[in-house]
Amino acid sequence: MEENNLIYGLELQARALTPQYGEGNDVCFFIATNSLKPTNQLHLLQYDEEQGTIQSKIFEHALGEVWKLNSCPHDAHLLASVYNVQKGAQVLSQAALLTLPNDDSGNKKDAEPIKSEYIPWAKIEVLDTADWGERVKTVEFHPSQEQTLACVVGNKLAVMQRAEASTRVIAEVSSSTSGAKHTSPFTTGKWSHHHQGHQFLALHDTSIRAYDVRDTQHCAWSIEDSHGQFVRDLDCNPNKQCHLATGGDDGCLKVWDCRMVKAPVFERSDHSHWVWSVRFNTFHDQLILSSSSDCKVLLTCAGSVSSEAPGIDDSEEIGTGASQERHKVLSDGLLQTFDQHEDSVYCAEWSNVDPWIFASLSYDGRVIISKVPKQYKYQIIM
């Protein structure tokens, strides 16, 4: 059933994966290692569907073990890395912007003979996040504003304007217990593709909070106790303005409508352990990927609440796939289990180029590039 899956193995453990956004022709993914050994690596993988092969370009990530990668949607050569560094007995999380060379050829080997097996970076810019906290969780590129970054650091959400070299803290969560020494930090966050780019969605413990970045500490809406346990990841439906998906330590995948926050509009509990990653298909948003520390990647259909569902209000059809062409909606439920991983699967990401291809990464360094099974693809497009 798992046709033409390709496996790419890393020498070190890993937990950071992102598609290469801004690339319009080739199916490409970035993967970075998460090792205490001195030399961590970042791999740029290019998948050739016709040849059934994966080609890689390898860069050294000397800054430290990588926990999170994000690719810039405006520049295929730019990505953000969140990594750990050790200072004495203390371990800190920092962030940097990495720029690939334009030629990508690695023809500067003569200049760096000691590290000739690695392609050199064009530029490495370490972000100054020390004033906000010691634990950077993610750096998110704004979907439409090239110079705007959001940084989730500890219990603070900061928005950076690179062109103006300015940063301001938009939100801060504090402990609900008076006199407590520690505040509960944000888990992660992501820009909303809608709301004119003014909202940033942040996860905190079991809650989801949307902050209006134009006004400090302005929570536009929130979903409290969204999961029975820790909520780990979220994704916004690119084609339906008020819908988002979440995954948590309760093993559940949920789809929410932020206008009706009392209960999810869709829910599945097919994973047997923590859900680390949830992703809407960017074109056919009835398809949702989830990955878990149960070593599985699941392909789930939430067709009844997708932009492709019959009878949807046309005003909500934001994406081009929804507005230009109606596709068949599959029945809700689990479509396929991908169980070729042997360790916790921390990331599963759709290709930026082909809506039927996705990659998944497990902690043992195994990357698997997979496809939506043909029977579901044909049922949707026929």
Automatic annotation (TrEMBL):
<dbReference type="InterPro" id="IPR036322">
    <property type="entry name" value="WD40_repeat_dom_sf"/>
</dbReference>
<dbReference type="Pfam" id="PF23609">
    <property type="entry name" value="Beta-prop_EIPR1"/>
</dbReference>
<dbReference type="InterPro" id="IPR001680">
    <property type="entry name" value="WD40_rpt"/>
</dbReference>
<dbReference type="InterPro" id="IPR040323">
    <property type="entry name" value="EIPR1"/>
</dbReference>
<dbReference type="GO" id="GO:0016567">
    <property type="term" value="P:protein ubiquitination"/>
</dbReference>
<keyword id="KW-0853">WD repeat</keyword>
<feature type="domain" description="EIPR1-like beta-propeller">
    <location>
        <begin position="5"/>
        <end position="298"/>
    </location>
</feature>
<dbReference type="InterPro" id="IPR015943">
    <property type="entry name" value="WD40/YVTN_repeat-like_dom_sf"/>
</dbReference>
<dbReference type="Pfam" id="PF00400">
    <property type="entry name" value="WD40"/>
</dbReference>
<protein>
    <recommendedName>
        <fullName>EIPR1-like beta-propeller domain-containing protein</fullName>
    </recommendedName>
</protein>
<dbReference type="InterPro" id="IPR059104">
    <property type="entry name" value="Beta-prop_EIPR1-like"/>
</dbReference>
<keyword id="KW-0677">Repeat</keyword>
<feature type="repeat" description="WD">
    <location>
        <begin position="224"/>
        <end position="257"/>
    </location>
</feature>
<comment type="similarity">
    <text>Belongs to the WD repeat EIPR1 family.</text>
</comment>
